[in-house]
Amino acid sequence: MHLTIPENYDPKLSRRETQAAIRFIRETFQDEFGQQMNLSRVSAPMFVDHAMGLNDNLNGVESPVSFTMADFDGHTIEIVHSLAKWKRMALAKNDFELHEGLYTNMNAIRKDEDLDNFHSIYVDQWDWEKVIAKSERTEATLKQTVKTIFKVIKHMEHEVWYQYPQAVHQLPDAVHFVTTQELADRWPAKTPKERENAITQELGCVFLMQIGGLLKSGQRHDGRAPDYDDWTLNGDLLFWYAPLNCSLELSSMSIRVDEAAMQRQLKAAHAENRVSLPFHQALLNGQLPYTIGGGIGQSRLCLLLLGKAHVGEVQTSIWPQTMIDQCETAGIQLL
Questions:
Q1: Is 230 strand, coil or helix?
Q2: Known catalytic residue: 236?
Q3: Domains of the chain
Q4: Cystine design at 34: which of 39, 86, 133, 252 (Cβ 3.0–4.6 Å)?
Q5: pLDDT per position as a tens digit, 264-318
Q6: Is residue 249 among the annotated active site residues?
């Protein structure tokens, strides 16, 4: 557990006003986001069958919450970490056409999360996925998608200002593109997190690309599951967050693996045994569309736009009593 307490913190809004602002941000953002990205809202599962290989393996060390069912003997059911692979199968199953896509309100439990101002064991995000052509599996497609999402977020800043001018947190006017190797070349002595802090403080908002593969040093900037993100065509959307003097990751997105990229990355991750799972077989057999997709943190967007000091101010979760006590003393209003 790690908690940063900002000096002289003022939440600006009461708990009740904050709840109203959360509803306004979520409803307004998802409607505009869906319209701008040509996405339809769909229902999505809270849990999946382990045997299908659909759960997000994250960095490969986090274990999902799991249980068994009386009427599904012999199967392990898992609470989702995210819907990265499920969405691609849903696009195929529901006959989405080229440049059409879906989004859903994803609710997950990540019980191994290290708790701090931004991290909770409860994850709520807009998970989205969109069909593209194989020829569009390019950096240009990725960057244009990032710019569209950034534009929607900036518009939300203005919408929140109209409703809550005393509380809105001002965002930078542009997003910049940087690779993990460029950061490592510039700051070889810094840790990956220190590099993210340095570049976002300098530029305001950065889309940090190419996460998951090895850098020239033989180290990774960060881990990524090998069977959905293409490590050469992915990235995280990071904002410099002055209230806590650090970078804030709002979104992770990627052009998804094709057949060759998945096999290459599974080998690099020593996870080639996954190829027999239904999702992986469907991809290798050409039964799934080529896609781009990602997730946008709902609570984190509310935190960012309202200038909050703790994600617990914009979502209800479970926190250690020591953290609750520290927040109360500092005027941080956990819900």
A1: strand
A2: yes
A3: 15-330 (3.30.930.10)
A4: 39
A5: 999 998 989 888 888 899 999 999 999 999 999 999 999 999 999 999 999 989 9
A6: yes
Check: CB of residue 253 under 8 Å from CB of residue 222: no
d(CA 305, CA 301): 6
The 8-class DSSP code of residue 231 comes to E
The DSSP call for residue 276 is G
**pTM confidence score:** 0.89
Categorize the per-residue pLDDT at 320 as very low, low, confident or very high, splitting at 50, 70 and 90: very high
For the stretch 121-173, pLDDT in tens is: 999 999 999 999 999 999 999 999 999 999 999 999 999 999 999 888 889 99
Q: Choosing from 82, 120, 125, 263, which is the catalytic residue?
A: 125
Is 124 annotated as catalytic? no
- Predicted confidence (pLDDT) at residue 59 exceeds the cutoff of 70: no
Nearest Cα residue to 30 out of 296, 316, 234: 296
Is 73 among the catalytic positions?
A: no
CA distance 70 to 52: 19
Instruction: Indicate if 252 belongs to the active site.
Output: yes
- 157, 249, 264, 317: the catalytic one is 249
Q: Write the Ramachandran bin of 145: left for phi over 0, alpha for psi from -120 to 50, otherwise beta.
A: alpha
30, 252, 299, 315: which is the annotated catalytic residue? 252
Helix, coil or strand: residue 240: strand
Residues facing residue 178 across a β-bridge: 208
Q: Does 137 qualify as catalytic in the annotation?
A: no
Rounded Cα distance between 99 and 64, Å, is 32
Could you say which of 26, 30, 56, 258 is catalytic? Answer: 56
What is residue 108's predicted lDDT score, i.e. its pLDDT?
A: 86
- Residue 60 pLDDT more than 80? no
Which of 78, 127, 129, 236 does the annotation list as catalytic?
Answer: 236
State the pLDDT at residue 206.
98
Contact at 8 Å (CB) between 92 and 288?
yes
The conformation of residue 62, written as its DSSP 8-state character, comes to: P
Q: Which entry of 110, 137, 256, 300 is annotated as an active-site residue?
A: 110
